[in-house]
TrEMBL record:
SUPFAM superfamilies: Cytochrome P450 (SSF48264). Belongs to the cytochrome P450 family. Pfam families: p450. The keyword Iron applies. One of its GO terms (molecular function) is oxidoreductase activity, acting on paired donors, with incorporation or reduction of molecular oxygen. This is Cytochrome 71D6. Its cofactor is heme.
Length: 372
């Protein structure tokens, strides 16, 4: 399954092929912020970004604006919220009975059921369309997630044939894994820039200079903005604890014996702030990456926002594209201020608890449209 996701869905080619959807969604984002900005009241930046990322993922998955898109996005958000908190029974597996007592689990099952039936309808509708219009032979790379999965499902040479249930699980997993991580990163980047106005000014100047004469955005040119995102991921990795690993052999570490099959959690949040590897570790300084080859490919163990090894995130390109573009567009099209009376030092950067670590309180900012 992982191979299918990496090769078929999240390849650089597919990520590029989603760029027109990304641009359309960015225009909708700007229009919506522009109309809210006329009142002069702060806009809910967090909500706008969550909407952008969810719509982007939704359209990449289903290739169209879903009839029930609003309902679907809300339900998926609910699944993530309900599944996101630490479950005592996950950490102490012998307390499995806690699961059955949990009201959250019942609610989760109910929401899951609703999501399931929406996705089931989409799959059936798509199958019907493919059968009647003979669109079965799409060009690879021009397909959305459902097309790809239905094509792969037909492949009889697969070691493990995929079922409709697998397709539904992949779609729901992709949403869970891809949506909140990207929106969380975008919101943290903006919050950190508002807290450090010199960084904000430098990033905005770069964007405005790069696109002075252009109508289209090529975010590849934005070297400083990329450093801002890199630094954001150091201080605020959206997945602070990597997927559980299991010890494949007994190991000795700092005089502790780690037995075979021990479950190990890697805390990338703590590693990213460890003063043994980072100077002035708690400060937001994108420049630290200027002359430094540390990257998110999973080989630099002091910096692992996308994990490492065989479970490394397969959505790095897709995720980063969904962070760079809205940030660049929003820095270009608006001037941003904190709500009246608030100083950068008043900005509360408390993190939420849960599987992903987002800014606890929604970020509210005043946007003023920019006239070049
Ligand atoms: C800024 C954005 C993102 C960040 C920071 C991020 C981070 C991560 C991390 C830390 C892991 C665990 C890796 C490990 O344990 O070694 C992970 C796994 C995963 N991510 Fe992402 N992710 C992002 C975006 C995305 C996107 C956009 C998608 C897909 C649309 C995605 C799909 C996945 C999947 C499917 C896994 C599970 C891989 C496996 O278990 O083999 N991610 N991600």
């Amino acid at each position: 399954m992982r191979k299918i996701c990496v090769m078929e869905l999240l390849s650089a080619k597919n990520v590029r092929s989603f760029s027109s959807i990304r641009n359309e969604e960015a225009i909708l984002l700007i229009d919506s912020i522009r109309s809210s900005s006329f009142s002069g009241e702060p806009v809910n930046f967090t909500e706008s970004i969550i909407w952008f990322t969810s719509s982007m993922t939704c359209r990449s998955a289903f290739g169209q604006v879903l009839k029930e898109q609003d309902k679907f996005i809300k339900l998926i958000g609910e699944v993530i919220r309900l599944a996101g908190g630490f479950d005592v029974a996950d950490i102490f597996p012998s307390y499995k009975f806690l699961h059955s007592l949990s009201k959250t689990k019942k609610k989760l099952l109910d929401v899951h059921h609703q999501v399931d039936s929406i996705v089931e309808d989409i799959i059936n509708e798509r199958k019907k369309n493919l059968a009647t219009t003979h669109k079965g032979d799409h060009t690879v790379g021009d397909e959305d997630l459902i097309d790809v999965l239905l094509r792969v499902k037909k492949d009889r040479s697969l070691e493990f044939p995929i079922t409709n249930n697998n397709i539904k699980a992949i779609i729901i997993d992709m949403f869970g894994a891809g949506t909140e991580t990207s929106s969380t990163t975008t919101v943290w980047a903006m919050a950190e820039m508002m807290k450090t106005p010199s960084v904000f000014a430098k990033a905005q100047a770069e964007v405005r200079e790069a696109f002075r004469d252009n109508v289209t955005f090529d975010v590849e040119e934005l070297k400083y903005l990329k450093l801002v995102v890199k630094e954001t991921l150091r201080l605020h990795p959206p997945v602070p604890l990597l997927t559980l690993r299991e010890c494949m052999e007994e190991t000795n570490l700092n005089d502790y014996t780690i037995p075979l099959k021990t479950k190990v959690m890697v805390n990338v949040w703590a590693i990213g702030r460890d003063p043994r590897y980072w100077d002035d570790a708690e400060s937001f300084k994108p420049e630290r990456f200027e002359q430094c080859s540390v990257d998110f490919n999973g080989n630099n163990f002091e910096y692992l926002p996308f994990g490492s090894g065989r479970r490394i995130c397969p959505g790095i390109s897709f995720g980063l594209a969904n962070v760079y573009l809205p940030l660049a567009q929003l820095l270009y099209h608006f001037d941003w201020k904190l709500p009246t009376g608030m100083e950068p030092s008043d900005l509360d950067l408390t993190e939420s608890a849960g599987v992903t670590s987002s800014l606890k309180n929604d970020l509210y900012l005043i946007a003023t449209p920019y006239q070049p």
